[in-house]
Amino acid sequence: xxxxxxxxxxxxxxxxxxxQPLVTHIYTADPSAHVFDGxxxxxxxxxxxxxxxFNDNGDHFAMEDYHVLSMDSPDGEAVDHGVALHVDDxxxxxxxxxxxxxxxxxxxxxLYFPAKRAxxxxxxxxxxxxxxxxxxxxxxxxxxxxxxxxxxxxxxxxEHYMYFGGIWGGQLQKYRDNRYGASFEEPEADQPALQPRxxxxxxxxxxxxxxxxxxxxxxxxxxxxxAGDHARRYFEGPWMHKYRGKYxxxxxxxxxxxxxxxxxxxxYGPFTHQGTIxxxxxxxxxxxxxxxxxxxxxxxxxxxxxxxxxTHLRSVKVTELKYDEAGxxxxxxxxxx
Length: 337
Ligand code: FUB
Description:
Elements: H1 7-16, E1 27-36, E2 39-47, E3 65-71, E4 79-86, E5 101-105, E6 108-116, E7 122-129, E8 137-138, E9 152-156, E10 159-164, E11 175-176, E12 179-180, E13 197-200, E14 213-214, E15 217-218, E16 236-243, E17 246-252, E18 259-264, E19 271-278, E20 288-293, E21 296-303, E22 315-321
């Protein structure tokens, strides 16, 4: 359900929505949810109207700062803790503070965020704070070796892994073997799709401990998904969680507007595509996180229902996520079956 609904279709979708925005006083998107000390903290993008026309480069996503939300439970009230980091306080960044994430280590909180430098290239930065709601102080330089967008950090056995990357406006197609090439583009449809990246973080959480590796997503025959397989190939918005000992890598398919997932036996993959988590929402983008709270699982996601379909003015929502006996995620239809 991209942003092509007529007024009647929009109205029907709004009335059948399975959940409501967590907050309505600001627009929020790209929610990364974590439980710290029994409380849920949500790290969203903060959408704003900058008056820039829609384009495939994503220039209309002109966000300038981050707000942190917290909730005592998934059906509780969401509290906005105010500005946690502003682009003016990031020495290397000029604009477009896109989807962030946070990790905790040794009592400190690390906010990871993509932003564009003055030359228009996305890099990923880190800012450090003493409280999950911030404020955060940015490091003077972006993470060495980082590129593209959508960092998502996952802790496993005391190590932290950052997944990242997004195509089109997210610039992932401009990189091969971690090197930028102005002439690089998406592969042809019959070639393997572009792959997200993963890198283990250094002990101080401020850098990569290794060169980023490609995250391979396989089809049911054990072959890498192809670039032309738009309903299954990776586009942006990675997330990792672990359920019953398996690693679940989930992501957005971008131009086919699905959240889907693939499973594997290691945080590095490979992962085998399994199916859909969330069918299309109102608005072009779809982006999520998955977190466990008191033994139940929740999907944090966004749509553009509050703005009546304006694709860069989105609102974060939450709904319960269920698995079947075999560990398959039960697909969710955001506006009912
Ligand atoms: O919010 C800006 C971009 O839109 C994010 O980085 C993408 O994942 C998409 O949701």
